Each structure stands twice: as C-alpha cells, then as structure tokens.
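User: Thanks for the earlier help. One more: Hydroxyethylthiazole kinase. Can you show the sequence and predicted structure together?

Assistant: Of course, both are below.
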Amino acid sequence: MSPSAQSIWKDVEQIRSQAPLIQNITNFVVMNNTANALLALGASPAMVHAPDEVEDFIAIASALVVNIGTLDPNFVTGMRLAMKRAKLLKKPIVFDPVGVGATPYRNQVSRALLDLAAPTIIRGNASEIMALAGLNAQTKGVDSTHGSEAALDSARQLSRHFGGVVVISGADDYVVYQDRVAVIGNGHPLMTKVTGMGCTATALIGAFVAVNPDAFQAAVHGMCVMGIAGELAARKTPSPGSLQVSFLDTLYQLTADQIQKTVKLTNQ
Ligand SMILES: Nc1ncnc2c1ncn2[C@@H]1O[C@H](COP(=O)(O)OP(=O)(O)O)[C@@H](O)[C@H]1O
Ligand SMILES: Cc1ncsc1CCOP(=O)(O)O
Ligand SMILES: [Mg+2]
C-alpha cells in the first residue's frame, strides 16, 4: 500500500498508544533534542551507548537508532555491539551518517558499520548519502553542499547494495527503496537553523519503524510528520530558538486533520 495521510495517522496513533522504546546511540549535540522529539511524538526514548550494556538494552527496545555525529572509539564499540545484536534479534536499525565525507575516520567507520549489519533505513542529507555511496562529495562538516535530488542515484545504489531504505533530506525529502521513490515537499528553510533537525528526523523514523514493519512506509511517514511539524511550527515563529520549542509542541498536538491538510507527498 502506498503511504498516504491515512496511513501516516494510523502509525501516529500506534506510536501514541504503544509508546515503543527506542534505543539511541547518538551524538552529544542532539541527545536532548531527539529525546524530546521522540517523547512529543509519543515514543519512549533511551540514550544508551556504553559497550557494557548496549546488547542487553536492545533486547528490550523496539528499534535502534545509530548516529555517528560525535564519533569516538568507545561509541564505535557500542555501535558495533548494538547493531550486531539488533540484527540477531531482528530489531530494525536506523542509521544516520552525520558528517560522513568530512574525514577518513567517518568514512571508514560508517562503511564498516554498514558492512557489519546492514541498516533497515539510512537517513542523511545529500552530501552524506553521496559520500556514503563512495562519491567524493564535497561536504561542509555536518551540513550538505548539494540539493537533495543530486543524491538520488547514490541513494538507489546504496539501497541496492545494502537492501534497505534510503532517505535523502533537504528542501524536498526523497525516500528510496529499490524502484520506489516517494517525494515529500513539507518542511521549512528555518529548520536548517536549528541544530539536530536531521538527527531528529532519523530518530522519528526509528519510532515509525518500531510500529510499522513496512520500512518504506515507516520512513515516508517519519519524514512527512517531521516536515509537517516543522512547517506548522514555522508558521508560528520567524526565529530558530522558538522554532525548536514550537516544533515539539506542534508534534505533541499533531492531528489527523493537520496531516490531511498539510501533507505534500508524491509516490513515484
Ligand atoms: N530548505 C528546506 N526547506 C524545507 N525543509 C527543509 C529544508 N532543508 C531541510 N529541511 C528539513 O529539515 C529536516 C532536516 O533535514 P536536513 O537539514 O537535510 O538534515 P541535516 O540536518 O542532517 O543536514 C528535514 O525534515 C528536511 O525536510
Ligand atoms: C553540529 C554537530 N556536530 C556534530 S554532530 C552535530 C549535530 C548535527 O545534527 P544535524 O545533522 O541533524 O544537523
Ligand atoms: Mg545530519
């Protein structure tokens, strides 16, 4: 079934009623932002990265979100253990290759993690998706220097190689799986002035894939809700500080009617 306003809302209701536990191994910059976004959506976040406990924790979680934003060797050990165990237990993995392409360390670690345990869904900006696919893409640290459509071929290649869903975020978001592409036109440029909005998108996708076994649908639903909440929040404020708060409030209060009236989703 193609994703639609109705299927988005069904998953939002599932998340609100089930409150799935989402294990996050994520960066120090966004831990608070993404935990609050998951709570506002209705999920139950836990930021757990110690190598001594990640394997036990994934056993009780419904999905694993791995984000390489503030990488160090201890994090990498935790990521490897958690991803391997998640695979074994058939728990979905969502991977955010923050800043890949910026340094050889990020490239090596990302590639090794993908080879160790192919994620269910990968979400990055255009430069990150292109770098992950092996292109010598210019990246500006954690920000993209390309429009999202420039990474479409790279996303298809990654999806074929790892067998999972690939999301490219940007002014338009693309969700790619094999021959399928969905385009989401929601969002607002002000979202790029709040740190961690991409990481938040990845974390929200983690909640959707925890309640929906169709990973393509889950990724589309996550990006639609992210974009709709950002767009509605930006109608209330012109500045980034208050956008951050308004985004959480909008997410918490999101209704079926708002989704129906705001969603800009094209299934290709
Ligand atoms: N120019 C834009 N217009 C509308 N929405 C945007 C724009 N740029 C980013 N977004 C939205 O902001 C969120 C974060 O995406 P992005 O900025 O691409 O991630 P990252 O922070 O990882 O680079 C996504 O939901 C995306 O749709
Ligand atoms: C600024 C920064 N530096 C290391 S991780 C991080 C957060 C990046 O978040 P996002 O990719 O969502 O903008
Ligand atoms: Mg990012």
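User: Great, one quick takeaway?

Assistant: The longest strand covers residues 21-25.
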